[in-house]
Write a structure and sequence with these properties.
The complex is a heterodimer of chains A (960) and B (194).
Chain A: E1 35-36, E2 42-46, E3 56-57, E4 64-65, E5 70-73, E6 82-83, E7 88-97, E8 105-113, H1 133-142, H2 155-159, E9 169-174, H3 183-206, E10 210-216, H4 220-229, E11 235-240, H5 249-257, E12 272-276, H6 277-288, E13 295-301, E14 309-314, H7 319-325, E15 335-338, E16 345-346, E17 360-364, H8 383-387, H9 394-402, H10 406-411, H11 422-426, H12 433-493, H13 496-527, H14 533-560, H15 567-597, H16 603-630, H17 638-670, H18 676-703, H19 719-746, H20 752-779, H21 797-806, H22 810-847, H23 852-891, H24 895-922, H25 925-955
Parallel strand pairs in A: 1-14, 9-10, 9-12, 10-11, 13-17
Antiparallel strand pairs in A: 2-8, 3-5, 4-7, 5-6, 7-8, 13-14, 15-16, 15-17
Chain B: H1 2-28, H2 35-43, H3 57-66, H4 77-88, E1 107-111, H5 121-125, E2 131-132, E3 140-141, E4 161-165
The chains are: A alpha/beta (960), B mainly alpha (194).
């Protein structure tokens, strides 16, 4: 298969493998001199007339430009500038059809010519040797020169060699082997001197050892013109035999030097730089004349035009204009080809402009370029392999490209195909081989791009994955650290003091038990009027002192123990303490009440002690509050809700104390006791205290409006509700006073008048509050379901109660009911979970086949669940408490009181009914009438009481 | 008799020596991990789209190595299935892509930025971090990094993400394959016998 490369024994010219001899068709256009091209109305200059980055426009639509003015600068290292081919105005920068086989549009500068052809000021250098090579390269770059042979590679890159590169041969390609094209032929004939000057500039830049011009032997005039021009200089003219594709870069290098450029290498690797003859001409114009590349010689040929020949065409001239300039016959025109018949491409749009690489336009008739025949199967004749100038196996490439076997095609050096079309030319089966190769090359490039993208995507995916994992690990590490810290703290604190506290607690419990027993004994003794009652009492006092001491010790121990414990623990301890203290206080109050009821002497004392306890409890509460405020890590929602809940509780306590006091006072008054006034005074004091607390509560509520998320959130503070509560209270007090007064009157008590006066005062008070309530309602019209204005008969006590009840916000109640239900469910669930977990833990402990860690985990889980259940229960309790408090606030009565009232009313009704039954026969009509009306009144009262109770219960969502 | 014994002894000796050598080599040159997974992963298109039911291409490669069918990659198309068939020496399969007839059309996500509310959901969904943006600020897709997996489309609460077909540019355009035997080549084929 290997033919000798040195078939020609001539020392001057070598040979390359393959090649074909198509009809030359050069006679059509090579007989007339180069004529000036048309000056069209509009020039279209694609930003990508060359290989590499598109140029960057320097002008905007509307700008007037002069001939030779740079209108786009190089857009990158491998790029070329664009200049205005004539004077005119930039009318648009936008997509236009360009010289591309895809037929796609690309961004172009559109220049409306003005016909003046006005040059920008320009000047060249007479002696280019005055310029440094760098300056010359710059000049070439800014003149926008790109390879004029067809590829369009920016010349400035090719001539800008590094210091290490040594150029053996500079080859000027003047072969022009493709049929039809005569542009270089005519250029050499007419501008040989300019071309030689251009070559000299290239020599100056590249400093080659030899300079060779390769010209095919079918251009004798051009050869003689060049030979004449370069007489006396070191440029060798080599005449090569006519063969297609001698003009290919690798082929001409082989022809002139015998060197073969290897696969994947550039001519520079063998020390050769190749330039087209047209490029040399453009370089001379740019350097010596200062004229950038704005026009080129293009062959217009084919049987479709009347005046075929070569034209000096302005870049950007639409092919349409060039055709009409050459006298096109539209009827005869079948195909329009840009470039030669072998390597060019069909134009589908005559608006495509002539660009820097356009060496030929063929306007072919159907006879000239007939429709290609149908593709036939490959017969493996091997003709294509014989003519392939790149020494490939086209039949194999075809086979693999057809089957999309890109890898095998690449193994057969698909990428070294120069797409010359020699194989397709000789193919007896008319297989469009080149298109198969182009397709396969595109697919290979696409695959490479896809692979690159896939690698990038994989990298990014893995980076993201790594990032997410790292974040997770960090979180886990932080969690572990936290757990570890907690465990450490627990083990630190759960030491000696725990035993102490337990022991102390036990002692305290025992002491209080003893005290209680003593008290009981004393009471019994008193009831029996035993003699030793006083003694027993003293004993009880002593025991009480002991118990108190024990309690104090426990408290102290507790206070001391959690010094190192976390804030949460402290809060819990404080809570417990507060609970203890308040229960102690309650007990004391109870005792005091009892004492008062029994008219004991030490009642005042007891009360005092109760007060002391209360003060202590308050102090603890304050401390707890502080601790909570200082413990932001405490379980969520607790801190926000607590002050309000705390205050509420206090208010509740205070008001119940006040009520108890009032009751006591009333009783005392009823009994005509001496200390009634005193009691009343103390009740007043308590009331004042309760009021203060209420005010505080109100304030707290106002300050905690954002306390929403917790289940135990108090309802938003409402001045109306407050006022209503006050009205309720006032009227209740008034009613009580009236009742007392009536009783006193009935009993002919002395203080009846005083009591009535007080009742009047209370009534005035109640009226005042009512008025205020009315005002508030009027000023708060947006309040849902505002109660109607107060009745004008405030004297009727029954009228006020339902009214204040009616003002309860049903929405609020429904919400609370919902919340209650939710909380109940939550608590039940939590409790169940806790029980289950606890049972599991116990089972595990019994089995003894689990590790300590697992047990610990389970224990933690149980604790957590228990905590959860407790929180839920607390919240539920708080809510119930709150509901009760609200009932109190709305009705001025306790739930208990309401219930009692209802029951009392019922029983009174029943009594009256029985009395009526009894007297029906015996009494007169008048008394019966009176009794009947009384019965009716009682019935109404009972109904009201029932209703009030029901409403209150329902509204607060306390329905069981 | 002794010759037989000598032969047996020699064979046993050889067996022992080679056994020792092989045992040592299998320890010394042990291959960490499963190299087939890497090879499969290289063939997969790395869109990380999850259409195979795995969270990314590598998990699917691992699943294939474990024995899962290798035809569940719609973005890779039949070519990937065939390549995997070759690699694994398994039975030939056709691509399992019901309802994904346009899977081979390259697409990228496009966020209509006027409508974006800045919820960052698509950012979290993107397997290759190709979406940039911040909370309450509009997001946008880095087209060069987008693999067109459309995992971001579903989480968008305002449906402002479109999958846009990638149009060929002058740089990515390639010649199409000739119609084949019995067909006239495209009239753009300029190579003719003169």
């Amino acid at each position: 298969m290997i033919r000798t490369l040195f078939r020609s024994r001539s020392p001057k010219v070598f040979d390359f493998h393959g090649g074909i001899h198509p009809p030359e068709m050069k006679h059509l256009s090579n007989s007339t001199p180069i004529a000036p091209g048309p000056l069209p109305a509009q020039l279209v200059l694609p930003l990508n007339m060359h290989i590499g980055a598109p140029a960057k426009p320097l002008v905007a639509p509307g700008d007037r430009v002069l001939k030779g003015q740079m209108i786009a600068e190089p857009g990158g290292a491998v790029s070329a500038a664009i200049h205005a081919p004539t004077s005119g105005t930039i009318s648009a920068i936008g997509p236009r059809p360009i010289q591309h086989p895809s037929g796609m549009d690309a961004i172009c500068l559109v220049l409306d010519t003005d016909g003046k052809d006005e040059w920008v000021t320009h000047s060249g250098v007479t002696d280019y040797t005055e310029l440094s090579p760098g300056e010359l390269v710059d000049t070439i770059r800014h003149a926008g020169i790109a390879g004029m042979g067809g590829a369009g590679f920016p010349t400035s890159i090719k001539v800008n060699l590094g210091d290490h590169q040594r150029v053996e041969e500079l080859i000027i390609n003047a072969v022009e082997c493709e049929p039809y094209i005569t542009a270089d032929d005519r250029l050499m004939r007419e501008h040989a001197d300019e071309i030689i000057t251009g070559i000299h500039i290239l020599q100056y830049l590249l400093n080659p050892r030899r300079t060779l011009i390769g010209i095919e032997d079918n251009k004798p005039e051009a050869i003689s013109a060049i030979k004449r021009a370069c007489k006396g200089c070191d440029i060798e003219v080599r005449v090569v035999p006519t063969k297609y594709p001698s003009g290919g870069e690798k082929q001409i290098i082989q022809l002139l030097t015998g060197k073969e450029v290897q696969s994947g290498q550039l001519p520079a690797h063998v020390g050769v730089v190749c330039q087209n003859v047209g490029t040399a001409h453009a370089i001379k114009r740019a350097v010596v004349d200062g004229q950038p590349l704005i026009s080129r010689v293009t062959t217009l040929t084919g049987d479709g035009v009347a005046r075929p020949g070569n034209y000096e065409v302005l870049l950007g001239t639409p092919v349409r204009d060039l055709l009409s300039h050459g006298g096109v016959n539209p009827d005869a025109l079948e195909r329009l080809v840009m470039g030669g018949p072998m390597m060019g491409f069909t134009l589908h749009n005559p608006a495509v402009p002539v660009v820097k690489t356009t060496n030929c336009i063929i306007a072919a008739t159907p006879e000239e370029l007939p429709e290609p025949p149908e593709e036939q199967p490959c017969i493996r004749c091997g003709s294509c392999a014989e003519v392939c100038p790149a020494n490939l196996l086209p039949q194999q490439l075809y086979w693999h490209a057809k089957n999309d076997d890109l890898e095998k095609a690449q193994h057969h050096n698909l990428m070294d195909c120069i797409e010359c079309g020699a194989c397709a030319y000789v193919c007896p089966s008319h297989i469009p081989l080149v298109q198969y190769y182009r397709y396969a090359k595109g697919a290979v490039r696409q695959q490479a791009a896809d692979q690159l993208k896939a690698d990038k995507a994989r990298e990014r995916f893995e980076a993201r994955q790594a990032r997410i994992d790292a974040e997770k690990a960090e979180k886990e590490a932080r969690r572990q650290a936290r757990l570890e810290a907690n465990r450490k703290k627990k083990t630190d604190t759960a030491a000696a003091p725990a035993v102490d506290t337990a022991a102390l607690k036990q002692a305290s419990l025992e002491a209080s038990k003893a005290y209680k027993a003593a008290v009981k004994a004393a009471k019994e003794a008193e009831a029996n009027e035993a003699e030793n009652s006083a003694e027993l009492k003293a004993e009880a006092e002593r025991l009480k002192a002991v118990a108190d001491k024990a309690k104090a010790a426990v408290r102290d121990a507790k206070n001391a123990a959690p010094a190192a414990a976390p804030a949460e623990d402290r809060v819990a301890t404080l809570k417990k303490q507060v609970g203890d203290a308040s229960s102690a206080y309650k007990n004391a109050v109870k005792a005091a009440k009892e004492a008062e009821a029994n008219g004991d002497d030490n009642a005042a004392e007891l009360r005092a002690s109760a007060d002391t306890l209360k003060a202590e409890a308050d102090k603890l509460k304050a401390e707890l509050r502080e601790a909570k405020a200082n413990a932001p890590a405490a379980p969520a929602a607790a801190p926000q809700v607590d002050p309000v809940a705390e205050l509420k509780q206090k208010v509740g306590e205070a008001s119940s104390a006040y009520k108890a006091a009032v009751k006591a006072a009333k009783e005392a008054e009823a009994n005509g006791d001496d200390n009634a006034a005193e009691l009343r005074a103390s009740a007043d004091t308590l009331k004042a205290e309760a009021d203060t607390l209420k005010a505080e509560l109100r304030e707290a509520k106002a300050n905690a409006p954002a306390a929403t998320p917790a289940p135990a959130t108090p309802p938003p503070a409402d001045p109306l509700v407050e006022l209503k509560a006050k009205v309720g209270e006032a009227s209740a007090a008034y009613k009580a006073a009236v009742k007392a007064a009536k009783e006193a009157e009935e009993n002919r008590a002395e203080n009846a008048a005083a009591l009535r006066a007080e009742a009047d005062k209370l009534k005035a008070d109640a009226d005042h509050w009512k008025a205020e309530l009315r005002e508030a309602k009027a000023s708060a019209p947006a309040t849902p379901k505002a109660a109607p204005a107060t009745t004008d008969q405030p004297r009727i006590p029954e009228a006020t109660a339902p009214q204040s009840l009616a003002a309860v916000d049903p929405e609020e109640a429904a919400k609370r009911q919902k919340r209650l239900k939710g909380l109940k469910t939550a608590y039940n669930m939590a409790h169940k979970q806790y029980k289950e977990a606890h049972a599991a833990l116990e089972r595990a402990e019994r089995k003894e086949d689990v590790t300590a860690d697992e047990l610990n985990d389970m224990q933690r889980r149980v604790d957590k669940l228990k905590n959860k259940a407790d929180i839920a229960r607390d919240a539920l309790d708080a809510l119930v408490e709150e509901a009760k408090a609200d009932i109190r606030a709305h009705t001025g009565k306790d739930l208990k009181t309401l219930k009692l009232e209802a029951a009392r009313a019922e029983s009174a009704l029943a009594d009256k009914a029985i009395e009526l039954q009894r007297l029906r026969d015996s009494s007169s009509e008048e008394s019966l009438e009176a009794l009947n009306s009384e019965l009716k009144a009682l019935e109404a009262e009972a109904q009201i009481a029932r209703k009030a109770l029901k409403q209150a219960v329902e509204e607060q969502g306390l329905v069981e | 008799m002794s010759a037989v014994l000598i032969a047996i002894a020699a064979l046993l000796g050889l067996a022992a020596v080679f056994g020792a050598v092989l045992g040592f080599a299998s320890e010394k040159f042990k291959v960490e991990g499963d190299p087939i997974v890497d090879q499969i992963d290289d063939l997969l298109p790395q869109t990380q789209c999850g259409q195979c039911g795995h969270p990314g291409c590598r998990p699917y490669a691992e699943a294939i190595a474990e024995g899962e069918e290798h035809n569940r990659c719609p973005p890779g198309g039949q070519d990937t299935v065939d390549a995997l068939t070759d690699l694994l020496g398994r039975d030939e399969l056709t691509l399992d892509d019901e309802g994904a007839e346009d899977a081979n059309i390259p697409k990228v996500a496009y966020i209509r930025e006027d409508e974006c509310i800045g919820c960052t959901k698509c950012i979290q969904a993107c397997p290759v971090d190709a979406i940039v943006g911040a909370a309450k600020l509009m997001h946008t897709v880095m087209v060069d990094e987008c693999t067109g997996c459309d995992l971001c489309v579903e989480p968008c609460p305002v449906d402002c993400i479109d999958m846009v077909e990638v149009k060929p540019t002058l740089q990515t355009w390639g010649w199409h394959r000739p119609a084949g035997i019995g067909q006239r080549p495209d009239s753009r084929i300029e190579v003719v016998n003169l």
